[in-house]
Every structure is written in structure tokens, then in C-alpha cells.
Here is the input.
Amino acid sequence: MKKISVLILLNIAAAAAIGIMAGLLYKFYGNSGSERLRSRIEAAVDSVDARIGIAAILPDGEEIEVTGGLMAGLGEDSSDRFPMLSVFKFHQALAVCGRLRDAGTPLSDEISVNETQLPEGTWSPLRDEFPLGGEFSWAELLEYTLVYSDNNACDILFGLTGGPSWTDSYIRTLGLNDFNIECSEKMMHENPADCMKNWCTPLSAAMLLEKFYDNRDADEYSRFIWNTMSGCRTGAGRIPKYIREQSAVIVHKTGTGDMTADGRIMAVNDIGTVILPDGRHFSLTVFITDAGCSMEECEETIAVIARIVMEYVMKS
Here is the structure.
């Protein structure tokens, strides 16, 4: 009997040892694929004359974060905060639809827009098409912001829904905090330094995309945003460039800044969720700021990062 007890204890000890070894092997080798992904992304951005923040949330929920570029760790703001520029119009759309949802207001309700709400000197396809204003539905104004990144439509929506601070507050109710929205397009146009006040971390943006993906079919408002962003007309050379060849669904929002006083590009951004033909998806955010390289190189950098992540997901 004593011998049997000893054998049982030995077997238990052996099983425990095997479990510990398995855990250690997983720790060191189990994530080797994602580490290779991280290494490929780092190599792709290492020599780019900019500060670059990347976050990807993979199909299994794993989060990848990379900060790189020649300007990484330099300057007054070397943190993981990046200026959003028009990327925040995605946040705004969620907030606008949240308010409409709570009030029971249909997207088809119309708003009167007059000429004074369509100032010159800012990006506005809405003004170019309707310089005297007119009657526009909530859906139409949101389409101009999400598809064409219209600055006047954005500020009109701010005026109807409590301004940037209300958008900020609404997004915080979704459980996110690593961002800040306090300036309208007009404020940023009048004082370019204010562009830095609308910031977020790459991971925060990726997490917001994931929350939205999980609720994309929840109601007519969510479906509207999802379908509208899938028709984004800006940034075709960014996340979609190589991924569209795979017949993937791409829902994304771009942001682009002006030149700074020292001749660098303030921001070239893109955030999006990609659904591959096999049904798996990933969310990706790429923020490029303080870029001394060309717009074309910035956009190609985003496209290459998206391709690297897509290839990893398709092979894993």
C-alpha cells in the first residue's frame, strides 16, 4: 500500500512538472508568431523620418503595439499620444448616433444649413456642392464627414450635439479613456497647434474599432456607420491599398494634417477594421506624425504595415 501511495505521488509530481514545462515552453515559444509580426512591423518603420504609433488587435484578441520611426522618443511629446486629425470624426459619428438613438430621432430627419455655416478655406465637398446651404438629413451630414471627411459638416454636427466636449464624454461612457477631444475643425484651422489637443493612443483607437465591430449590427444607427465607413473615399493608398486585392471588407477612417512651420507633415493617419474572406477580422491603427518624408512615403508605410498584419493573420 505504501509503495502504491509513493507511485501516485510520483505520478502527480511528474504531471505537475510536465505542466510547468509546457507553460514555460508556451511562454517562450507560444507567441513567437506574434513576436515575428512585431519584428516585421518594427523593421518596416525603423528608417521612416517620423514618429509612428501602431496598434493591431488580432482575431484571437491579442494586442500588438509598436512605436517607431526616426523621431520616436524625440521632441516634446514622445509618449504614445498622437494627434488624430479627422480620425476623430469616427468618434463623433458614434456620439451623434448615440444621441439620435437615445432621443429616438431617425437618421432621415432633416436639418437646415445656411451659407454662414459653410465657410471657405477649409476642406468641404458639402460647401463646394451646395455653397448656399440647404436641407440635409442627419445621414447625409454623417456621410459627408465619414466618406469625404468634410470639415464643415463636422462642425455643423458638433453644433447640433453639444460640441467636441460632448463627443469626448460620450466615448468615455464606452469604457475608453486614452484619448482627448476638445477642438472643432474651425478651432484647429484657426490655430494649428490645437490639432495636438485632439489626441488618442493607437491602442485606444483599435479598442474603439473592436467595440464598434462587436455592435455593428445592433441597430440602424450602427449599421449605418458601418456601411458608410466601408465606402470611405479618402486614404485609398493607406490601409486599403494592398488589402483590397484580397476581396476583404475594409471599414476605415483617415486623418491628415497640414505642413508644420518647419516643413514637416503634422499627421498621416488611418484606422480600420478588416474582415477577410474567411470571416476572421483584425483592427489596425497607424498614426504617423511629425513626418519629414513625403505624403506618398507616409501612405505607403501605412499600406505596408496593413499588408504585414494581413499576411500574418492569413497564415496563422
Q: What stands out?
A: The chain is about 45% helix and 20% strand. The longest helix spans residues 2-30. Strands lie at 51-57, 63-68, 82-83, 110-114, 133-137, 179-180, 199-200, 249-256, 265-275, 281-291. The longest strand covers residues 265-275.
